[in-house]
Design a protein that fits this description.
Number of domains of chain A: 1
Number of helices of chain A: 20
Shape of chain B: flat
Number of domains of chain B: 2
Oligomer: heterodimer
Shape of chain A: globular
Number of strands of chain B: 0
Structural class of chain A: mainly alpha
Order of helices and strands of chain A: HHHHHHHHEEHHHHHHHHHHHH
Largest sheet of chain B: none
Strand content of chain B: under 5%
Distance between the termini of chain B: 64 Å
Helix content of chain A: over 70%
């Protein structure tokens, strides 16, 4: 209780509150600019946090993380261009409603749903992270290795798509993490005589490159594509209707908020599952309920043509992922998604390591972060409603030809601030180019990031486990001495085999369908 | 020959070669330090081989076309080149402000075309804001020329 109060006291300091508010406003602005997202915002802001007190930097990042998704819904509704990937499903019903002359109502639903989802998620963080961290304190080398394995497997398995590419990404990330002096013998590995690499590839420039510089290259590609296609900006619809929801609408949306917040929270807690999965699951479930309950009634639009639930479902689900994705990060040291991986960098800059020890060594900071999520979710609604008209104007006012070099200069100068070394800029630039090449190859970034974060821990725990067990590889699946490790390894196997089973199921279905089609032809 | 136009084919070849290079480098490490990277490099080779087979069999694999290559070269390619010039200038001690104004201005011209004078002014404004944030507000010692350092104290 003392730690909670201490965290609350830190959060209530005027400067910390000011940084939280700055983060919320910055997140709304960044989110409302198509092409920019929370990853890029973090890549730009993290280097600044060097010279800030940790409490200021973390408050800023919490605000930023919470509000970016709301910002993303504004251009999605107004011009059918999602500001962030999390607003992808909001474009459908949100823009349809705006086209029918109700952009204010659509934005009101999006903001209120985001606040409800985000608040539910922050409560999950309050009640789940501390006990999970307490439980994780029992973990030894064996369990920690299995935990790292589970984190990586869940990211690779849940990404969907090509399993080979997910695994290749993880392997590349783990290999990059081996650069530097060997943990066991001190032998320099893949350093090529460069002293800057003895402690490994600098983490912050690597992240800035993978997120920020890659984004700069993608934005420039998009810019060239748009110029070639000769696309021009369309006129923005004007907000003339009410933004605040009436009682009947609130009452109607409560079941959608509850179900989608629950989906978002469950998905958020699982490392690697990601926001998009929560959005699709929430949207799909709500569409079935809507079609059964409302479609065909007088005055009710068809699903996808301006249904209020079509906006509420994805928005509640995406914000419900935000704080809950911090549960595995704060309690176990495993990032729930790529943004929370950037949180690790922010904590590490200030000498803090996320995981169970954070609640012992820096319990006040851990609680400050948790309570900041609660507060950010409470205040971001009114701020977003107040700023919405400014933000909608911003969608087209900012020109990409100025945005691209500005982000590039901010990211690369930020990479320099890591060790005040030009070597760090080279690392960021190379990481950015490699990250862009990976995007072109459809190699996912999430497993690389997680592998970079967990790589050294995995190797360290793996070798220590084998030393302690005198080389016995079965130590990780020992049901008597290490039942937790066994459960975690089984979980990892489940995640890895999931896509394989899904592929087999699809293959069998296709075969059966083909067989059924051939029977009448033959008979 | 269609296989040679598939992105997955070239990705698989690249990662396989990377795995081979890592194996050869890791083989020179001492016994305790090499086992883990060797295991990862072998896994990378095996996975790349899997991706190669999958890329050859799959009918829906993405292919490279000329238009796409042109877009990548004229957008991200030019960006990469200009930022590389910027870091190279910083590395040789050309200071922060000059190279930044030059490169940011060049990027604006490359993206938009039009008047170089307007681009230069916009570039000056962008560099001034970024420099002020890092150097003045956050006290990060950017690699400026001695004369700039003296002027700014």
């Amino acid at each position: 209780m003392e730690a909670v109060l201490s965290g609350f006291e830190i959060l209530m300091r005027p400067e910390v509150l000011a940084f939280l508010l700055v983060g919320i406003v910055a997140g709304l602005v960044v989110g409302s600019i198509p092409g920019l997202n929370d990853n890029i915002a973090f890549a730009i802001f993290i280097p600044f946090s060097f010279s800030m007190a940790p409490t200021f930097a973390l408050a800023l990042m919490v605000g930023l993380y919470c509000s970016t998704a709301i910002g993303g819904s504004i251009p999605a509704i107004m011009v059918k261009v999602p500001g962030t990937a999390s607003a992808i499903m909001t474009t459908i019903d949100g823009n349809a409603m705006a086209q029918k002359g109700m952009p204010g109502k659509a934005i009101g639903i999006a903001i209120t749903s985001s606040v409800v989802g985000g608040f539910a998620s922050s409560l999950v963080l309050v009640f789940l992270a501390p006990p999970l961290a307490k439980f994780a304190l029992r973990f030894g080398y064996v369990e920690n290795f299995a935990l790292g394995l589970l984190g990586l497997a869940s990211v690779v398995g849940l990404l969907g798509g090509n399993i080979f590419k997910g695994l290749i990404a993880a392997a590349v990330g783990l290999l990059v993490a081996t650069v530097g002096l060997s943990l066991e013998t001190g032998f320099p590995r893949f350093t090529f005589g460069v002293a800057n690499l003895y402690e490994g590839v600098p983490f912050l420039p690597l992240l800035v490159g993978l997120f920020g510089v890659t984004a700069v290259l993608e934005l420039s590609e998009e810019w060239v594509r748009e110029r070639r296609a000769g696309r021009r900006a369309e006129a923005l619809p004007r907000i003339t209707d009410r933004l605040i929801l009436d009682y009947a609408m609130v009452k109607r949306l409560i079941p959608t908020w509850i179900s989608c917040s629950a989906i978002g929270n469950i998905i958020g807690v699982i490392p690697g599952a990601g926001m998009l999965m929560a959005i699709f699951l929430g949207y799909e479930r709500t569409s079935r309920v809507y079609k059964r309950k409302y479609e065909g009634r007088p005055g009710e639009p068809k699903w996808g043509e301006g249904a209020p639930e079509g906006i509420a479902a994805p928005e509640a689900a995406n914000n419900a992922v935000v704080a809950s994705s911090m549960v595995p990060l704060l309690s176990l040291g495993i990032p729930g998604n790529s943004v929370s991986a950037l949180f690790i960098a922010a904590l590490m800059i200030h000498g803090m390591m996320p995981g169970p020890l954070l609640f012992i060594e820096h319990s006040d900071i851990a609680w400050m972060i948790i309570l900041a999520f609660v507060l950010a979710n409470l205040v971001m609604g009114p701020i977003a409603l107040g700023l919405v008209k400014t933000l909608t104007g911003m969608v087209y006012r900012l020109s990409k030809e100025l945005l691209i070099p500005t982000i590039g200069l901010l990211c690369l100068s930020g990479a320099y601030s890591d060790e005040n070394a030009i070597f760090s800029i080279w690392v960021a630039l190379i990481a950015g180019v490699v990250g862009y090449a990976f995007r072109k190859m459809s190699i996912p970034h999430a497993p690389i990031i997680l592998a970079l974060v967990l790589g050294r821990q995995i190797e360290d725990n793996f070798s220590n486990s084998l030393i302690m067990s005198q080389g016995d590889w079965l130590v990780f699946v020992d049901p008597v001495n290490h039942p937790i490790s066994l459960a975690l390894v089984a979980g990892a196997a489940f995640f890895m085999l999931g896509p394989v089973f899904s592929w087999i199921r699809q293959w069998v279905r296709k075969r059966m369908a083909r067989g059924a089609a051939e029977v009448p032809a033959g008979s | 020959m269609t296989a040679l136009r598939r992105i997955d084919f070239w990705s698989a070849v690249t990662f396989f070669l990377l795995g081979v290079v890592v194996i050869s480098l890791a083989s020179a490490f001492d016994e305790k330090s090499r086992s883990y990277p060797l295991f990862l490099a072998i896994a990378l080779c095996v996975l790349s081989a899997g991706l190669l087979v999958q890329g050859l069999v799959s009918r829906s694999a993405k292919t490279v076309d000329r238009d796409e290559v042109e877009i990548v070269i004229s957008g991200p390619g030019v960006q990469t080149l200009l930022w590389t010039v910027w870091v190279a200038l910083l590395s040789v001690g050309a200071g922060y402000l000059g190279p930044s104004v030059l490169v940011v201005g060049s990027i604006i011209v490359a993206l938009r075309g039009g008047s170089p004078a307007k681009s230069l002014l916009q570039s000056l404004a962008i560099v001034a804001v970024v420099f002020f944030m890092f150097y003045v507000i956050f006290d990060i010692p950017l690699p400026v020329l001695d004369i700039v350092d003296e002027i700014l104290g």
